[in-house]
Design a protein that fits this description.
The complex is a heterodimer. By secondary structure, chain A is mostly beta strands. Chain A is built from no helices and eleven strands. The mean pLDDT of chain A is about 90. Chain B contains no helices and eleven strands. The chains are: A mainly beta, B mainly beta.
């Protein structure tokens, strides 16, 4: 399957723990986007990355959240000291190049905070 | 004004009818426009995309752009119950910046 791969599909954490969400883009895609979606709400842009570079993190909370896309391996969205309000679906999308190319989404990670 | 706006609905149409979904965007210089379908609990799935140079038809789906009024529409002909989903409009406004609308919920009534 050459689609966008996200894991885990479901992640349960207790308040104060760390959550790590992984995303492997489609083959040939070098641009990765992370979105958050609360139940019954729209997609909220968080961050846009290319290999080893954060291009736009304007949608990312200033504290506790970080993202990376290393030269080798998947993109990681990291949430430290999780709180109940972090419970959401986190989607990763990838595209092959700049702007005019459509984004393709992974199946998402459903994060639940106990 | 939000960058991309959609009527949240719900929009209900009878089976076999034409469903018309619209979204407006704020940046007149936007060049590419995307429609995604999202079933409940699932990820967004790309249906169609168009560029500023014209409309596009693909099977039962037609995407139309009105640049003067800054809106893009998606028409679904011969609507089926399986088309019931939330439809997300996305616009590429600046290089590498996508803005998504909040989506329109569509219900096709058998």
């Amino acid at each position: 399957n050459a689609g966008v791969m996200q894991n885990p599909r479901h992640l349960v954490r207790r308040r104060g723990q760390e959550a790590r969400l992984r995303c492997s883009p489609m083959k040939g895609h070098s641009h990765v986007y992370w979105y958050r979606q609360l139940p019954e709400e729209g997609l909220k842009f968080m961050v846009y990355l290319q290999k080893e570079n954060i291009i736009d993190e304007s949608g990312m909370p200033k504290e506790r959240f970080s993202a990376e896309f290393p030269k080798e391996g998947p993109s990681i969205l990291r949430i430290q000291q999780v709180v109940r309000g972090d419970s959401a679906a986190y989607f990763c999308a990838s595209s092959p190049g700049q702007g005019v190319q459509p984004q393709h989404f992974g199946d998402g990670t459903r994060l639940s905070i106990l | 004004q939000k960058e991309v706006e959609q009527n949240s609905g719900p929009l209900s149409v009878p089976e076999g009818a034409i469903a018309s979904l619209n979204c407006t965007y704020s940046d007149r210089g936007s060049q590419s426009f995307f429609w995604y379908r999202q079933y409940s609990g699932k990820s967004p799935e790309l249906i169609m995309f168009i560029y500023s140079n014209g409309d596009k038809e693909d099977g039962r789906f037609t995407a139309q752009l009105n640049k003067a009024s800054q809106y893009v529409s998606l028409l679904i002909r011969d609507s089926q119950p399986s088309d019931s989903a939330t439809y997300l409009c996305a616009v590429n406004m600046k290089i590498d910046q996508f803005y998504f609308g909040t989506g329109t919920s569509l219900t096709v009534i058998p």
